[in-house]
Amino acid sequence: MELDHVEAFVAIVRRGGFTRAASTLHLSQPAISRRVHLLEGELGAPLFDRVRRGAILTDAGRAFLPHAEALLASMRDGIDAVGALRGAGRGAVTLAVVGTLASTTLTERLRRFREAHPTIELGLRTALSTEVSDLVRRGDATLGLRYDIDPHPDLVATKIHDEPMIPVCAAHHRLARVRRVAPTALAGERWITFPPRPGTTQEPYASALEQRLAACGMSAAEIIAIDSLTAQKRMVEAGFGLALLPESSVDEELRAGTLRALRVPAMRVTIPVVLIHRRRAYLSGGARTLMAMLTA
Questions:
Q1: CA separation for the pair 274, 192 (Å, rounded)
Q2: What span, in angstroms and rounded, lies between the C-alpha atoms of 67 and 185?
Q3: Is the pLDDT of residue 114 over 70?
Q4: Rounded distance between C-alpha atoms, residue 240 and residue 251, angstroms
Q5: Mean pLDDT taken over the chain
Q6: Is 131 helix (H, G, I), strand (E, B) or coil?
Q7: Is 233 helix (H, G, I), strand (E, B) or coil?
Q8: Residue 175 vs residue 50, higher pLDDT
Q9: What angle do CA 88, 275, 201 make, to 5 degrees?
Q10: What is the Cα–Cα distance from 253 to 43, expressed in whole angstroms?
Q11: 247: three-class secondary structure by DSSP
Q12: Is the confidence at residue 88, as pLDDT, over 60?
């Protein structure tokens, strides 16, 4: 089996069709089609159903994809390992992170890493937790920071932090200055959170809110779905509803007084933050140093 055939297959999946994959790999479309045809011949099964708007994976294609991605990731690991022996191990470290984790604490640690290791190229990608796992598993990111443990056997996960979630309201809200808020006082309030995402696991914020509301007997509370943490904070400040948000993400607003933390013990919850990497991945010195800094 030729690696360039596998590379062509993965490129078609990621780019969404033969034409885009051919452009990415600087090949003609007939050339990339031939590579896939030869690969299908070796596997003894078609990998794609060709449709007018592109290509759709067959059952065989879906079964082969994670192994193809692992094969390419392993090859890149080998190249990096040999490069390190030749003294060319400065390389690059890519960190995939859930965007809502980009708090002042994380950005400060990344700043210190860049200052201490100016020859290491640090790349950053933001994604949802499930997407962070996918990026790391297929080798597109060296390390990942996500919410909750991913049980995938190809990943190693280390919990580094429990993210406190706190209910917040506008500074002018009727409960803003109440010393201790009973859950019954929240009856009739609207709540702002992330929208559901078909085909993926629920966002941890939305899931935590749903669980806390149910525990407080408010399962029927009105929910406003907003797909942006910044927009959620602005809507709460304007009085459109309450929200259950990470404490680190509202630090500036709390200090400025535009948001107030509601003292509702029954609504407090934590979400585990974990650092992940591929189980058999080659981790350069730079990657290990970044891991140590993130877990300190």
A1: 25
A2: 53
A3: yes
A4: 20
A5: 88
A6: helix
A7: helix
A8: 175
A9: 125
A10: 57
A11: helix
A12: no
146: helix, strand or coil: strand
Side chain identity at residue 208, one-letter code: A
Q: Which residues pair with 51 in a beta bridge?
A: 54
Torsional class of 229: left (φ above 0), alpha (ψ -120 to 50), beta (otherwise):
alpha
In angstroms, rounded to a whole number, what is the distance separating the alpha carbons of residues 128 and 193? 15
**pLDDT band, residue 240 (cuts 50/70/90):** very high
pLDDT in tens, 9-21: 888 988 888 888 8
Separation in Å, CA 9 to CA 32, 53, 89, 202:
8, 17, 29, 30
Angle subtended at Cα 168 by Cα 163 and Cα 169, rounded to the nearest 5 degrees: 170
120 vs 113: CA distance, rounded Å = 9
Dihedral of CA atoms 66, 69, 71, 77 in degrees, nearest 10, equals -130
**C-beta separation of 178 from 271 below 8 A:** no
Task: Using alpha carbons, select from 137, 138, 194 the residue that is nearest to residue 6.
Answer: 138
CB 43 within 8 A of CB 34: no
Alpha-carbon span 104 to 56, nearest angstrom: 42
